[in-house]
Amino acid sequence: MIEANVGNVERLVRLALGILMFSWAWSQSGMNAVDWFVLLVSIALVLNGVFSRCYLWYVLEINTCRDGDKNCQPQSSCP
């Protein structure tokens, strides 16, 4: 399992955007392909925010954790 690589501020932004996008997509009367895509992306954002892990950031080797973030290890300089 990958370590946490999403900082607290980014977690809150992902959660807020995920909930807003989910609410919008779910409220559509006729769900087309775009609405389903938005729904899936919103679920991914919420899960990223809840678990502090982003697999895209892991592949790209991006870590937005800061020293003060709880349960978040900043990327070390060790090889």
What does the model show?
The chain is an all-alpha fold. The chain has a domain at 8-60. Helix content is 56%, strand content 0%. It has three helices and no strands. The protein has helices at residues 8-26, 33-51, 55-60. α1 (8-26) packs antiparallel against α2 (33-51).
Report a brief summary of the structure.
With 79 residues, the chain is an all-alpha fold.
- Which runs of at least 5 residues are low in confidence (pLDDT < 50)? none
- Mass-distribution shape: elongated
Report helical residue fraction. 55-70%
What about the largest sheet? none
The computed structural class is mainly alpha
What does the radius of gyration come to? Answer: 15 Å
Say how many strands there are. 0
Question: What proportion of the residues form beta strands (DSSP E)?
Answer: under 5%
Summarize the helices and strands and which ones pair or pack.
Blueprint (H helix, E strand, L loop, with lengths): L7 H19 L6 H19 L3 H6 L19
Keyphrases for this structure?
single chain, 79 residues, mainly alpha, elongated
